[in-house]
Fold these 2 entries.
Entry 1:
Amino acid sequence: MKKISRKEFFKKTGVITAGVMISPALAGSPMPAGNAKKTRVGLIGCGSVSHSYLPHLSACPYAEIVSACDIRYERAVAQAGRFNIPHTYPHIDQMLAGAPFDLLVNLTDMQEHGRLNKIALTAGKNVWSEKPLASTVEEGKELLELAKEMNVRLWGAPVVVNSPQFAFMAEAIRTGKLGKISSAHAHYGHLGPTWSAFFYEKGGGSLPDLGVYNLATLTGLLGPAKYVTAMTSIVTPVRNTDNKGEVKVEAEDNAMVLMDHGNGILSHVQSGFNYFDPYGHTGTGQDRPTVLIWGTRGNMGLVGYDCAPFGVALATTDHEEPVRHANDALGYVWQEGASVVAETLATGKETLVSAEHSLHVLEIIEAARKSGQTGERIRITTKFKYPVI
């Protein structure tokens, strides 16, 4: 039998649908028959992020989008028209009382995530939430307990652990290619979004919007953080936004976070809304490492941002010149989470993403803010299943 590449396989089997490449997890699964079980999805929040989620989710063979909801009802109607969604609602209570669905996909303003997730879980719905899954660690813990009590599932973005680049880096660490790990660094920043004021209001900030990716990547690769020390600041005190005009910045737009993972391993994350970056939010064209890990026998760098990676540069004592690996994303995209968990609910196939990991990252963010205010070294109490792979 003639061998073909994975990319050729995807093209031959129709996995690339309507211009959307399905994730490796979905691509590796059999396409369901016409009468196979699908996860019925109700999506809330039809603004900017939905323009990325809905094309991917509508192409997912395990999902059926039955309803769209937004307090700006015209946005729900518009997205329903674009993606053939049969039901629209202006309020979550009406959506929960309307057409039945299995999975709530929450794409609302980050300050609303915890409240809306609680409403959906209480109603017996599974939940996929954009980051963060709650406003505080205590609220997040309550959501996890509520999900168990209601016998439903809760997941939270980001999905960085799903990328083939993360898998390569995890394997390199596990097999000792880098020797004893000592240090790591990650960064993610740009000049800040303008389309909504919530990024700059209390409960927003660069850490839950951008730094969250790096925190999830480094804890996923190096293990849960045990202690956090940080400094945060506001560089630009007033911002002009599309929906509210000029607003006072109340959340950090500049952050430096230092994590102690135990076993001598230290890592650092920097994120902010004051970084000149010609590659923009997703880093298209970014060909330099943004996540770096050092050990006694080698080092490696994730090429591109961890929300949109496209390679890993590895150098070791056996081959000191860096060599690029995992150069094909194989369909991984940052907005695939809802599609992946739709498959989990439809087939029972588990995903690497977990609510416990999301909660751990949320605690790091909360600890970083406290450390920035007080100068304390903060102990982290939450954990997640590690190694992830």
Entry 2:
Amino acid sequence: MKRREDLTTPRQSRRLSVHYDPDAFGQFSESIARTFGTARFLVIQSAIVVVWIGINVVSAVLRWDPYPFILLNLAFSTQAAYAAPLILLAQNRQEERDRMTTDNDRKVAERTQADTEFLAREIASVRLSLADVSTSGEIEDQFDRLTAAIDRLSARLDDLDASRPADS
């Protein structure tokens, strides 16, 4: 047994490790899931199956997969074995994107609510400040009363001047 002098570093693993880009693989799985989920794929796959069965039933010379169509079943099994995990991976990525979108929407809603509450407080403050301020209607009423009072005083002064004897 070989003894290592430096115990501060972990021993290197001797396993065969495959390095791949998880994001690129996720994008690949999403493209596969998008392809499998289309009507075009189903039509093409159905056409291939019809042609496969037709050739193997009708043609005696080109018969590579006789009646129980074991090779066709193997192809479908292989497709299903790979499709299911790829579709699940695509769903997981979509779920993560949805979660991030929901979190972002929640943060935006919180900021909007805080802004709305701030504006409501500001409007209430302005309303309280304006509660003591006279309106234009009130000012017009005051001017009308003052004008009427001045007219009455002018009339009284005119009456006083008219009732005084003329000294000159």
